[in-house]
C-alpha cells in the first residue's frame, strides 16, 4: 500500500528578539526560536520524511536584518542539500514575499511565491502540494480562484494536499478559545476542495486539527495547524508548541487519507505574571518581586502587572534597571500595558 510522510511546521518567527547589535547584554528570546527551528530540521534529518513543509511566517517581520536572513537561509540550504525537499508558504509576517537570496535557488527548496503546485513521486505514487502565498483581507472572496490558479484540477489522480497560511472557519485562538467563523480573511469550510487529503496551514499559533466534516452533499477535508514553534505572546502561555509528523496512505476505496498524525512537542519556556499588590509601598517593591521570582522556574518569561489602585510612586520603582538587578539572568521580562505611562527604562 502506497504511503507518504511529511514533517509539517510553521510560524517560526525567526529574528524575534534577536538584535544584531544589542545595546544591553541580557538574555534574549531569539535563540529559543532558532533552537526549536533546528530541532525540527534535525528531526527531519534523522527520520528522513518524503517532504518537509513550512506553513509560513519563517521570519517575524517583512524587513529583517540581512544577517538573520543569511542565518536562516544557510540552514535551509544545508538541510535541502541532504536530499529532502522543503516547501515554504510565504506568510503574512513576510507580507507574502520571502526576502530574495541565492540560497533559495537550491533545487530542493520550493517556494509558493504565487499559486502553483509541486509534485513528487513517492512510493510509486504522485503527491501534489498546491498552494499560494498568504492572501490578506480578501481571501474569502478570492479563495476558489486562487486554488484554481494553482493548477489544482490537473492533479485529481494524485494525493492532493492544499498548503496555506490562512485562517479557516472553525480555527480557535487565545485563552478564551475564540472561534473564527466569518470575515473577509476567513476561508469557509464549504469552499475547501473535497478532493484534498488534508489542508496544511500555518498562521494560527494554537496547534489544532479541524476534523473532516460533511457539509451538504460533500466532505470538507481535515485542516491541520501545527501552531507556532515557540510562544510569541502571553495569549499562548498555556499552549503546547511543536510540529507534526504526518503519514498518508491509500485507503481501500483508493482514496488518499490521513493514516497517522503525530504531534511532537518542542520545549517552550513558562510564562508567568507577577502582579504588584496595591498595598505595596515603594520601599517594598524590590523585595516583593524577588520573593515572587524565588517561587517560579528560573527559565521563565515574566510579565510585570500591577493592581489599578497601587501607589503611583511604587509603580515608578519598577524599571528595567531594577528588574535586571533582581531577576536571574536566565529570565526574560516584559511590562504589561499597566506601565505604559511610566518610565520603565
Question: Which terms summarize this structure?
Answer:
alpha/beta; Purple Acid Phosphatase, chain A, domain 2; six-stranded mixed β-sheet; 345 residues
Show the helix and strand layout:
Layout: E1 3-9, H1 30-47, E2 51-54, H2 66-80, E3 86-88, E4 109-111, E5 116-122, E6 125-131, H3 139-149, E7 159-165, E8 167-168, E9 172-173, E10 178-179, E11 186-187, E12 198-202, E13 208-210, E14 213-215, E15 218-220, E16 223-225, E17 241-250, E18 256-266, E19 271-276, H4 285-293, E20 301-306, H5 312-317, H6 320-326, E21 332-335
Parallel strand pairs: 1-2, 2-3, 3-4, 6-7, 7-12, 8-11, 12-16, 19-20, 20-21
Antiparallel strand pairs: 1-17, 5-6, 9-10, 13-16, 14-15, 17-18
A few lines on this structure:
The chain has helices spanning 30-47, 66-80, 139-149, 285-293, 312-317, 320-326; strands at 3-9, 51-54, 86-88, 109-111, 116-122, 125-131, 159-165, 167-168, 172-173, 178-179, 186-187, 198-202, 208-210, 213-215, 218-220, 223-225, 241-250, 256-266, 271-276, 301-306, 332-335. It is α/β, with parallel strands linked by helices and 345 residues long.
